[in-house]
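Backbone-to-sequence.
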């Protein structure tokens, strides 16, 4: 042990590297706990849809209205819904 300063500097360098390494590991662990992934829903590559209702109405000789209703349930029936009368503001002033 001719020069204790050499051993002291090597020991201090190793200690600094260990502190940096431990700090990095702790910081990385904290980030991992913060970024917990949300519960992901399983996504299927495709989903089957079934046509429940379709109709085509001709309003005049140049205008058609089409309606198509799809569902992802195989045995689905539409319930009868009462239509509320629509009020147009054409003649109301």
């Amino acid at each position: 042990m001719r020069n204790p300063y050499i051993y002291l500097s090597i020991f201090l360098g190793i200690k600094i590297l260990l502190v940096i390494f431990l700090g990095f590991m702790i910081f990385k662990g904290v980030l991992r706990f913060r970024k917990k992934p949300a519960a992901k829903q399983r996504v299927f590559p495709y989903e089957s849809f079934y046509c429940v209702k379709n109709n085509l109405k001709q309003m005049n000789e140049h205008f058609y209205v089409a309606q198509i209703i799809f569902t992802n349930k195989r045995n689905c029936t539409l319930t009868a819904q009462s239509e509320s009368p629509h009020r147009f503001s054409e003649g109301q002033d």
